[in-house]
Amino acid sequence: MLVVVAVGLGAVDVAAAGRPQQAAVDPVDAVLANRQVRRALELSKESEPRTIADQIKFCETPAPPMKEGARAELLKRAFLDVGLNSVYQDRVGNIIGYRSGTALRPRVMLDAHIDTVFPEGTSVLVRHVGQTLVGPGIGDNCRGLAVLVAVARAMRDARLELPGSVMFVANVGEEGLGNLRGVRELFGVASGRATHPADVDFFVSIDGPGLHVTNVAVGSYRYRVTFKGPGGHSFAAFGVPSPVAALSRAVTRISEIEVPRQPRTTFNVGRIGGGSAVNAIPTDAWMEVDLRSSSPMALKALDGKFQAAIDAAVHDENARGVTPTPITVTKELIGERPAGMTSLRSPIVRSALKAGRALGLTELRLGEGSTDANIPISLGIPAITIGGGGIGVDAHAPTESFDPTDAWQGTQHALLVTIALAQK
Fold it and tell me: What is the mean pLDDT of the chain?
């Protein structure tokens, strides 16, 4: 999921490593002179009611973490309906379709994630409050999926021919403990290979509502920390070291960690659990922790402080105890997202910003976030994440809502960026 933190154009401009930067000449003006391109843009606006209908349909089909199958099947049918070729589902559940170009290069991957953060059993009915749509996942990322399909539909209906090919992907595992498993599979990272089998020149992810160009990848470490001890009766065994007490000490120490404001660096204890009864000293307790930063060095430094806080908490609880059986702790890394940045000089960033200006999107801004784009950025592939338009509120909450006012602007932006990147 993308939570955009706006950054100024004066941000440090670091070229993406490991891949040569192409000439900084954006083709936006040239493609806007093309009659078929202009027609595709018109169609994307005219068909916004269809895009909204798709958005609602996708949203009302559940896609809980690790169980995206029903919605994936819906996307597979949608890809076929808009004329994409060689549509298939890969081994981890991604839905992939192609629109071939007239030349071999460039190759653009356009992506939107299928999954939501909401557990199985959550009501996904979309309610209408005036013109506003309310429902879990309606913006993040049913809007992205609807725009993904709308871009393919506009290209087909305008009979648009592009030099480059476009690979459309509805991918799994972006949210939570999915650990970007869908996009890792696409680029061969899931099996430990630092390669990109699809041979992609540009990667664009459509994630959530709003108008933004996110070129800074916020990295993260996610841990499940488990404390274990001997346990016992709350009265008879009083004084035995407690896993819950050790966990509580750890949370207190974590909350006191000082982090820099720039680069933005954060931590969060998101879930805790343990114990069996109110009158029993627990034998175990656990917590899940999220550490984030847009700087790899700051993230590593935060990780060191986090590790030290856990170890100190266990030491202090064991020192308090009256038994030789100590508390033990395991720190399992359950998620990792690489930090990085696509250069402001990169053609993909320049084209995205120029496309926004050409469409009169005065609210378009640069930002940073944690998205599918983290993986290609880490491989040196020019990559960004953009919004699907409209106004979103309460992402990741059951009250999530989407105001479709001028939402077609997001579709037009995604379309024009894709067309511009697919030029020779």
Answer: 92
Residue 52 CB burial class (10 angstroms; 0-12, 13-18, ≥19): buried
For residue 259, the domain's CATH number is 3.30.70.360
Residue ranges of E strands in 85-241 = 85-89, 95-99, 107-113, 127-129, 132-134, 165-171, 202-206, 212-217, 219-228, 232-233
Q: What is the pLDDT of residues 109-150, one digit of tens each?
A: 999 999 999 999 999 999 999 999 999 999 999 999 999 999
Quote the pTM value.
0.88
d(CA 152, CA 156): 6
Q: Where are the beta strands (DSSP E) in 240-321?
A: 265-274, 280-281, 284-293
> SS3 of 389, please?
strand
201, 248: one domain? no
Q: Number of folded domains in the chain?
A: 2
| 14-38 mean pLDDT | 66
Q: Count CB-CB contacts under 10 A for residue 168.
A: 27
* DSSP 8-state assignment for residue 32: H
Whether residues 193 and 240 fall in one domain: no
β-pairing verdict for 265-274 and 284-293? antiparallel
One domain for residues 297 and 167: no
Alpha-helical (H) ranges within 321-407 are 347-358, 374-378
Q: Is the dihedral of CA 102, 107, 112, 114 positive or negative?
A: positive
Verify cis geometry, omega within 30 degrees of 0, for the bond prior to 263: yes
**Tens of pLDDT, residues 261-299:** 999 999 999 999 999 999 999 999 999 999 999 999 999
Same domain (yes/no): 60, 105: yes
User: Dihedral sign, CA of 100, 101, 106, 110?
Assistant: negative
In this structure, the answer to whether residues 91 and 210 fall within a common structural domain is yes
CA distance 238 to 301: 38
